[in-house]
Amino acid sequence: MITTATIGYPRIGPKRELKKALESFWKGDVSEAELQKTAAELRKSVWQVQKDNGIDLITSNDFSFYDQVLDMICLLGAVPERYKWNGDDVNLNTYFAMARGSQTKDLDVGALEMTKWFDTNYHYLVPELKKDQNFKISSQKPFDEFNEAKNAGFETKPVILGPITFLLLAKSIDGSSTIDLLDKILPVYKEIVKKLNELGAKWIQIDEPIFVKDLNDGVVSKIKNTLNEIKSSAGESKILLTTYFESIDKKVKDEVFASNVDAVHLDLVRGEKNKDYIKNSNKTLSLGVVNGRNIWKSDLSKIIDELKEVSDDFIISSSCPLLHSPYDLDLETKVPGEIKKWLAFAKQKLQELNILKENINHGKAKDQLSENKADIEDRKKSKLIHDEAVKTRVKTINDSVLNRVSKYEERANIQREIFNLPLYPTTTIGSFPQTKDVRQARAKNRRGELSNEEYEKFLEEKTIETIRQQEELGIDVIVHGEFERNDMVEYFGENLKGFTFTSSGFVQSYGSRCVKPPIIFGDVSRPNPMTVRWSKFAQEQTSSIVKGMLTGPITILQWSFVRDDQPRQTTAEQIAFAIRDEVEDLEKNGIRMIQIDEPALREGLPLKRDDWNQYLKWSVNAFRISAAVVKDETQIHTHMCYAEFEDIIESIAALDADVISIETSRSRMELLKTFEQFKYPNEIGPGVYDIHSPRVPNKSEMVELIKKASKQIDPKRLWVNPDCGLKTRGWPETLDALKEMVAAAKELRG
Ligand code: GLN
Ligand code: ZN
């Protein structure tokens, strides 16, 4: 017999109710009691949905007001000193101070650092620990939510983030090693588990997603004992140990399966290797068969076939928590009907699990199964998806597609001659402030309250204004400002074939923030130019050089829901050719510098190092397909941000962009250390100030930074620019900052 389980459900609300409640609470418009009421209603509705759709093991404590790692910081009482926590159970004030910073007269502190959760687009708050860190239960959340569910008639399986993942994701503030705190943290975990057992939890879920990463032997050797310690306090409660996002290595598997936990969850969607572990297991298996982080319907018949190999009783679930899926396809109004039939959001994934269960256990749900089969077949054959010309084109990738005409040195000589830029040329990353008037005009145009002509006129005026500002500032290479773009991926997606958009496909990104990724459902091509109109218009307004602005193939891939019927590499190559067409058209229309942004190159790295090289090879090639079509005279720029680039610097160089602008100012040019070992060969603009803060940097700071940079990089190859686009900034601070920046470049030239 098989049973169904969830290992986590989205919490922001089917209509983003929690987002709205949180933001109103932060503004002071609703009381804490009202916020709590909304949260309780959401939790109840989520449990109800799971129950109604046949889930046997429903999760609790997967709700969060902000982030499950922050919840764990509170549960363990690991609040950093600067938040002046009084040591009682952590209240919402302290909680949100850690999440968002606080600016009251009693407490003036910044937020905890935030970073990406494995290779998803979800961000967690990073715990800060020290050598003499103490832990004690300092929140009642898992206990309260378990009781709340019980009182509402739901028997749940509380989830908590496991100790090894918690410690390894934490950062040490004193150079000690966080994993050394394991002995200190375990007693608190044991107490938590004991309490949950006393409350009557039949199952307790311990999440250890870090188990899928490359763990060193020291850590691996601690796994069995850690799990046994936890289990020893659980009484008759059963422990489900969950891993997800990838397979676990054999050495990790051996430890986990040798421990006393009752059940183990394995991701069978991403974790190919996990399939080796599912036969004759000594544990109850929880098999993640339905993709928890994509929006495609599962091929249920195929899953049933695969599960035939497992002989014992087992649990089926989504591959990872459904946190990474949108809520409910029934709410969807925008996706065309034919494509909608291919999709499944969180609620539909519950239904898939139930169909699997009914069929495997009782031979039932045959109609739903054949309906599923029909939809899967329909998608395979659909004319909407398949474009032979596109498929043929990606087979033509060869050296001449991938390589510029001449090597960088030769191109650089030609370009220096024709552009005649001063030393330390100044530029920006592309966008200028997207002020209220810009967003309003766009919204009005969408609603039909502003005609297309009026909207275009408005954009033209904005663009001209921005060009004049840059001329006045004396910026050497100018940009058009990107006012016509809502978002750097959506704008391109809307103009490419093979993409569609949802009305309801929101996924939590961090706190109250959600993203609504485009869906890449079919072969990608570019029917018409996408940016030529604005770049050309801008270039016509000025005698300075205007840099064209594009988003690169990997970033478009990374920030979308990607089709699962072909390798990501192939989809990336198709997008790359579409961008290549655009690059070619820009060049034909007199654009002499073209920037192809790839801020997401780093975050696409696979979780396991063994897979890095392969990914880097095809992603670098995708960029080169986009860029290499131009003549030597045309200068290709790229831009990267939000990441540590140290470990992929050689691949960044392999992009062979003539110029890269790169975020470094927050890490105070730490990147430059990398250049001591690796000589970056082409031109580079290390960001000289942080655009994420309204603070205006002064000239001398920037001069210092560039001077430092010029110790590692030939000044002839250095550019001066901010570290990212300016769209989130206001105009006054933007102008002030750029004025200082231009002055800094001038001083250096002197
Ligand atoms: N050209 C984009 C901009 O300036 C780059 C954005 C990014 O790097 N995220 O907004
Ligand atoms: Zn950026």
What does this structure look like?
This protein has 750 residues and is α/β, with parallel strands linked by helices. It has two domains: 2-76 and 138-381, TIM Barrel, CATH 3.20.20.210; 405-749, Alpha-Beta Barrel (TIM Barrel). 42% of the residues lie in helices and 13% in strands. The chain has an eight-stranded parallel beta sheet with strand order 1-14-13-12-11-10-8-2. Helix 14 (388-394) packs across helix 22. The radius of gyration is 27 Å and the shape is globular. The relative contact order is 0.08. Zinc ion is lined by residues 429, 599, 639, 641, 724-725.
Radius of gyration: 27 Å
Q: Specify the biggest β-sheet.
A: 8 strands, parallel
- The overall average pLDDT, rounded, is 96
Please name the CATH architecture of the largest domain.
Alpha-Beta Barrel
Distance between the termini: 79 Å
Number of domains: 2
Overall morphology? globular
Structural class: alpha/beta
Features:
750 residues, alpha/beta, TIM Barrel, eight-stranded parallel sheet, six-stranded parallel sheet, 27 helices, 13% strand, globular, binds glutamine, binds zinc ion
What's the short story on this structure?
This protein is α/β, with parallel strands linked by helices and 750 residues long.
SSE layout and pairings?
Layout: E1 2-4, H1 17-27, H2 32-52, E2 58-60, H3 68-75, H4 92-100, E3 102-103, E4 108-109, E5 114-116, E6 123-125, E7 128-129, H5 141-151, E8 156-161, H6 163-169, E9 171-172, H7 182-199, E10 203-207, H8 217-232, E11 238-242, H9 250-258, E12 263-267, E13 284-290, H10 300-307, E14 314-318, H11 337-340, H12 346-362, H13 366-381, H14 388-394, H15 399-402, H16 408-419, H17 436-447, H18 452-473, E15 477-478, H19 490-495, E16 497-500, E17 507-510, E18 513-515, E19 519-525, H20 532-540, E20 545-551, H21 553-558, E21 561-562, H22 568-588, E22 593-597, H23 612-627, E23 635-640, H24 649-654, E24 659-662, H25 671-677, E25 683-686, H26 699-712, H27 731-749
Parallel strand pairs: 1-14, 2-8, 7-9, 8-10, 10-11, 11-12, 12-13, 13-14, 15-20, 19-21, 20-22, 22-23, 23-24, 24-25
Antiparallel strand pairs: 3-4, 5-6, 16-19, 17-18
Helix pairs in contact: 1-2, 7-8, 8-9, 14-22, 17-18, 22-23, 26-27
Bound molecules: glutamine (GLN) and zinc ion.
